[in-house]
Amino acid sequence: MQLIVNIIVLASIYALIACGYVLIYRVSRVLNLAHGELMMLGAYLVLATASLFNNHPALALGMAVLLSLVAGGLVYVFLMRKMTGEMVLAAILTTVALGILIKGVVVLIWSAQQQYPAQALGVPNPSLAIAGAHISLWSAVLVGVTALTYGALFVFLRFGRWGTRMRAAGQNPLLAAQRGINLHGVYALAWGLSTLTGAAAGILMALDSGITQAMPIIGLKAFPAALVGGLDSLAGALIGALIVAGAEVLLIYYVDPLLSDVVPFIVLIAMLIVRPWGLFGTREELDRV
Amino acid sequence: MIKILLLGAATACALAMPTTMPAAAQDAYVVGLTGALTGPPSSTYAPAVEGLRIYIDRVNAAGGVNGKKINLILEDDGAQPSKAAANAKKLVTQDKAVLLVNASLSSTYAPMIAESKNAGVPLLFASGVCPKSVYPPADPLQFCTTGYAANYDSQAALDFVKSQAKGPVKIGFSAMAIPLSRGEIDHAESLSKTMGMTPVDKEVIPPPTADYTPFATKLKDAGPTWVYSWAPWVTQVRTFEALRKLGWKDDMIAWAHLESEAELPRLKDDRFFVIGANALFQDNLPVHKEIAEAVKKAGSKYPPTMMTEGWIGGMAIEAALKAAGWPADAAKVRTAMESLKLDTKGLRGSPIEWTKDNHFRTKLDYRVYRWDSGKSAIAQVQDWKSYPVK
Predict the structure, then answer these.
(1) Residue B182 pLDDT > 60, yes or no?
(2) Dihedrals phi, psi of B165, to nearest 5 degrees
(3) Count: domains in chain A
(4) Both B106 and B175 in a single domain?
(5) Domain membership of residue A198 as a residue range
(6) How many CB atoms lie within 10 A of CB B94?
(7) What are phi and psi of A130, to 5 degrees?
(8) Same domain, yes or no, for B333 and B186?
(9) B318-to-B55, B56, B191, B198 alpha-carbon distances in Å
(10) Tens of pLDDT along A219-263?
(11) Is pLDDT at B5 greater than 80 in this prediction?
(12) How many CA atoms lie within 13 A of A138 on its CB side?
């Protein structure tokens, strides 16, 4: 039972991070390689809001999430918008530079020290027992938030006005623009939502076990989950995360813990050989990648 | 497009610039440091580098060494071997450093040692684990002030476990997937058998790990009565916290890294022990007050409790340059380091003594601390215990 809980928690972490990659790629065809750093920035923002809203953890968390949404939008407005019409490679390289910049800025502001937002907010992280297995409170919250996020995104993209616009912009930006859709608005929203989901993952991981400078690498480890599922499919990201997390947890327990570092990439290579466009991705996306 | 690419290149160049610009080499002793100022393990190394920098700034403010300033050039390697190699090459060829300092992960050692050997410039490990090449018979160019050291630390930790255990010891191990941590835990595993303990599991955990629970689950299921970890702090503390979340209630001992003094009050766990070679600030020595004042004056983001390793490194650099005289070249500094005796003012159990064959120290001293719930404070569990270095 503990192994199942471990798989669900790890899959939730990967899925919540991976949906950020998918959202941006699906709408703007850009691989955001600064997603891990934006996730880390979200976690650090909690430290900032915690000092602003003493004794109001819910408010501090809400503000941090909101600021992440705004930060994502601003990244598009002030940086990625300039990439419109440029080669996709230039846009990807810009995200790499953005990642380096964020890593430097957080060290300058908050130092390289390991930080504990839960301590700053004064919130506990008790261990909960479920059917003989143990899960920490914030890990359980992360599982719930992941489910909620995917549910909300499904409803938003399927039935929401802006969600429909996002899908249209992703499928055919030229036609979408001709129909009066504000492409820059749609792209900014996609960047905002992507940063929000990544930040939510970063914040919840930080509440569970603290913030370290390794967070961007964890963000990168979730990338294979998105690719395995199909880079333009949210359902695919969810399934991909489950496959990668399942393989990782089971190999740690039954074979060798060292494999955990390479498992996501082994799964990815296997998928690229068998089905390069991913489990639920569309075949035409392959040419674009 | 070209404008954008140029802007990106300029940003990258700006980020890659050293944090301190070199002054004219002939006016000062040039000391070049490459360290993990950013990147996953930077929480252990960046504060130490800060402590070293504050110490050197203080020396310079007091007039320098032999009437000359120390020009400390800091380079960030992000704990990446390739960056450490490039930094070392730049420091010896461009900046003409007479002494190289490494404050990074063990994976950066090999390329840096190669650069040090090529240029004949001595290399000091200050806050990165001491490699065996500084033990007798030492490599002529390598020296180490860092408190933690392979083989001896595990001997001391397991001796402590044995002294505390009331019955047979089933011991589990946790390491980070980096060369020295793995090697030390392998050594500890073998050592535990010779000491009558039963090793039950060993988890080697990669540095970028989202969740430590899968590793802790395996460790807990093996049923250890003690767990020993010798790894960067993040691996030690996250393994422990994951074990506690899983309901494991036994004892763990880990290395007392710079973070430990701030972390013990956070964890508030009487059964989590830290063993180390540095006196914690709770011992309240006069030198601790000196460090705290200097850190406050410098306006550092790091607490003084994280400065000890860097402070000792700074003391060693000052002493070595003083003995080397002026003008000093790499050969003179190396010769001076070969007979250095450093009084650490109680930060260590005994002075750091280097000889021609021993660039480590002649004996090692360890203290053990834990959180004491009764007193709501950190408590010393074992006073200095010495181990001769052979």
Answers:
(1) yes
(2) -70, 140
(3) 1
(4) no
(5) 2-121+130-215
(6) 12
(7) -130, 110
(8) no
(9) 9, 8, 38, 46
(10) 988 888 888 888 888 889 999 999 999 999 999 999 988 888 888
(11) no
(12) 22
Number of separate domains in chain B: 2
Spatial separation of the C-alpha atoms in residues B295 and B50, rounded to whole Å: 9
Phi, psi for residue B287 in degrees, rounded to 5: -65, -30
For residues B125 and B38, what is the distance between their CA atoms, to the nearest angstrom? 18
User: Does one domain contain both B14 and B141?
Assistant: yes
Q: Report which secondary-structure segment, H or E, holds B255.
A: strand B251-255
- Residue B386: half-sphere exposure toward Cβ, Cα within 13 Å: 10
Is B180 within 8 Å of B207 (Cβ atoms)?
Answer: no
Interchain proximity B247–A129, CB inside 8 Å = yes
How far apart CA A137 and CA A207 sit, in angstroms, is: 10
Please name the residue that has the structure tokens 């494999």: A259
Distance from CA of B114 to the nearest CA of A (A): 28
Contact across the interface for A93 and B8, Cβ inside 8 Å: yes
List CB contacts (< 8 A) between A123 and chain B.
none
Amino acid at B11: T
Answer yes or no: is B265 within a domain: no
As to burial, measured by CB atoms within 10 angstroms (0-12 exposed, 13-18 middle, 19+ buried), residue B166 is exposed
Same domain, B188 and B234: yes
Same domain, B158 and B143: no
Q: Could you please report the per-residue DSSP string of B65-81?
A: BTTBEEEEEEEE-TT-H
The complex's ipTM works out to: 0.87
Q: How far is it, in rounded angstroms, from Cα B379 to Cα B248?
A: 23
Mutation pick from A51, A253, A260 vs chain B, by most beta carbons of B within 10 Å, is A260
- Residue B9 clears pLDDT 90, i.e. is over it: no
The secondary structure element, H or E, covering residue B379 is strand B377-388
How near does any CA of chain B get to the CA of A34, in Å?
A: 14
Say whether A214 and B38 touch across the interface (CB within 8 A).
no
**Could you tell me if residue B215 is inside a domain?**
yes
Q: Is the pTM of this model over 0.90?
A: no
